[in-house]
Amino acid sequence: MDYDVREMFEVRFTKEDLEAIRNALSDMKNPVDVLTFVGDICTFCSDTVKLVDLLASLSPEINGGKLIRHKIYHYKRDGAENFKKYGITRVPSIVLIDGQIRYTGMPAGEELRSFIETMLRISNGNSGLTEKVANLLSKVSGKVHMEVIVTPTCPYCPYAAFLTNMFAFEAHKSNNRNIVSDVVEAYENPDIADKYGIMSVPAIVINGEVEFVGVPDETELLSRIYEKVQKGFRPRYY
Asked: Taking each helix axis from N to C terminus, what angle separates 15-25 and 45-58, rounded to the nearest 10 degrees?
């Protein structure tokens, strides 16, 4: 990893950046729990903790508490059972909504936008998906693991990550625990990108197979999910 890549993960913001983030988070209505998983041998764990702590400090305060509630789990200090509970095998990782949204790697660079917007949507209870798509997501009966391969400099990656995150969030809202969105940072996890033969990002992998390179619309993504886990059933949107 060269020096320029390392710079992408440094937590450095101008006063204008901080004010823009504070303004974006000011629309939060309800608390959001953010769990960060770290370990001893980890290049970007401290930067990830620093980033989430900063976002928490910039979030609104209600009844004496910040709306972004950050908790850190260290593998040795807090025990492997917490890692196992959320299926965490790599550090740093970030977990939202009981593990249905995960960031495997630090949401650095461009990816910070989707991370902030994801927390904002969770806080306000609104995924922004159409009612028909949301209804069909509640009925997905098979396990769906979406991995979105991203990099900090990719301008389109936040849109792909945000879309899969909202699929997982909408399923979670309907008590459907079958859908997981996992945003995988490729520089920190090159073996995952190599395993799938990813040459450009964003790429969306569903249950171990590359399904999209680029950003699909919500009906395309939903159709592909149904094709993979509920064969023989074609979702009807209209």
From this structure: 60
